Amino acid sequence: MTTMTETHNATTTSPSSPEAAQPARPRYKVTGLRVLRSEWAKLWTLRSTWITLALGLVFLIAFGVIAAAQYGSGSGLDDGGPGGDLSNADALGLSLFGISLAQMAFGILGVMVTAGEYSTGMIRSTLAAVPRRLPVLWSKSAVFGLVTFAVGTIGALVAFLIGNELVSGTAAELSLSDSGVVRSLLGAGVYLGLIAVIGTALGALFRSVAGGISVLVGTLMLVPNLTSLLPNSWEDDVNKYLPTNAGESLYSLTHDAASLSPTAGLLVLLGWSALALAGAAYRLVRKDA
Amino acid sequence: MIEAQQLTKRYGEKTAVDRLDFVVKPGTVTGFLGPNGAGKSTTMRMIVGLDAPSSGSVTVNGKRYDRHSAPLQEIGALLEAKSIHPGRSAFDHLMVQAHTHGIPRRRVEEVIEMTGLQAVAKKRAGAFSLGMGQRLGIAAALLGDPATVMLDEPVNGLDPDGVLWIRNLLTGLAEEGRTVFVSSHLMSEMALVADHLIIVGRGRLLADTTVQELVRQYGGDAVTVACDQPARLREVLSGPGVEITGEVGSDHLHVAGLSARAIGLKAAEHGIPLFELSSRTVSLEQAFMELTHDAVEYHGASTVDTPGRAA
């Protein structure tokens, strides 16, 4: 049906120019896949992507390895002081120690993926090419979310393999085939991927790198502390639904009453991502670019 | 083809674009003229769907811009503000846009060549000079081989070479049968390239006319003549193709369609003494100033009688 109206258009709009050889013009078309392809290219053609992804990967691996090395060298066992909480740790928890810093790098890059287009003016080119707008948001979040999932999973796996080696022979040692290990490593990737999506959505929602990053950092670092102001009976109920804590249930081996199950955690985290995306979509469609 | 119907954009109290009606036709260069702040850029942003009209509508080739399946093929736009990511190379900038439409790499290389960017195509676009940036914007506008090309103040910041290049490009595109819509706040620049003129002031349409028509309307090639018997002279001079205006009680008449020489001869023939006889050619610039000046007064003071074309 669309093809028919287009052909009709082409013939009616250019009656004054038979010599312009309109039929010879190639027929282009915007498709979802092509917008994805474009966003994929956009991501990799900026140096900041490579730098920030590398930074996130380094945080993830380095801090995990350091934590494991600490434990392996015995310091975590003896001193009962600041490092005392490592005593009943497992190789997985130790090697994923860097996740709280890595999530900042990935989340902030997510904000930059969208808000950066507004601060530079690139958004005008983007929306001129895809005036329906929403495919841009879906593609950006999908591309960056999946890239971060891949990088995060690889990072978590590498951190675990090295970290596990460092704690071999101790109580913390695990094997990839132990129950929950692969799920946790994948969970770490999924968590980071969804934080990346939330960052992307926040960037599109606030249209400002500074604004998006503030809200992201606030959500990931400040809000969990603020809940301690709540009455005790509420605190646990609220706490486990926060993005960071719901995420933690995805990538930790053990779960207690205060945390959600991995599946519930995933659903809650998906809910937060959907909420952020919905806000971003609303603003994108409703507000002038 | 661009068609605006009662196109309006309000920002709170302020009306940036006020019930604009116009049609931009294929095969000619249409100039979009107005002083700074007249609403030209806002209008262009609405044409490509970056801003939504408060009321009214605008279509590109018969459809709203966002309803087209290949928007970049319908209209290629260079907007006034920079629309690039400074960290991306010129080639990459064009390529990411090409991807959305399935435009081949060959076409990207083609527009780079057309705009003379070969030497800098792999450099970061953020380091470009104003002129280079403008060329990149034009390359992006031409990327989809669009039926309509729309450029907002394209000669801003260009050196004389660049200005000439743009002029030739615009007339070339129009000759190929494309719709060319160019904004400027400089009448002198428009006069060189545009056939048709859409003139706006304070968001309102002041004139939708041709260059010749505008000159004629604003007393171009008219003759001012003064004598003590204006009524008789009027009779003597009137004829087909001759237009005579003058205020009642004034000695002065403005005559269009006759040369000063012809008027002098006719007056002598009928024994009417003349006090003054001068031809005045109004430049486009003057006509433009007069038009937009009226618009400013029309909105500024409460009631200033603007004969003829205030709306």
Automatic annotation (TrEMBL), chain A:
The record's keywords, sorted A to Z, are: Membrane, Transmembrane, Transmembrane helix
- Give the stretches traversing the membrane: 50-71, 91-115, 142-162, 182-206, 213-234, 264-285
Please give the residue ranges the record annotates as the region Disordered.
1-25
Write the signal peptide boundaries. Answer: none
**Where is this chain compositionally biased, Low complexity type?**
1-13
PANTHER family under this entry?
Answer: INTEGRAL MEMBRANE PROTEIN-RELATED (PTHR37305), MEMBRANE PROTEIN (PTHR37305:SF1)
Q: Protein name, please?
A: ABC transporter permease
Provenance organism: Streptomyces aurantiogriseus
From TrEMBL, chain B:
The entry lists its GO molecular-function terms as: ATP binding; ATP hydrolysis activity
Any Pfam family from its record, for instance, is: ABC_tran
Q: Give residue ranges for domain ABC transporter.
A: 2-227
Check the record and name the Gene3D superfamilies matching this protein. Answer: P-loop containing nucleotide triphosphate hydrolases
The UniProt entry, under PROSITE patterns, shows: ABC_TRANSPORTER_2
Q: Which CDD domains match?
A: ABC_BcrA_bacitracin_resist
For whether the record's keyword set contains Protease, the answer is: no
Alphabetical UniProt keywords: ATP-binding, Nucleotide-binding, Transport
Q: Which PANTHER family match?
A: ABC TRANSPORTER, ATP-BINDING PROTEIN (PTHR43335:SF4)
| Family as reported in the entry's similarity comment | Belongs to the ABC transporter superfamily.
Name assigned to this protein: Multidrug ABC transporter ATP-binding protein
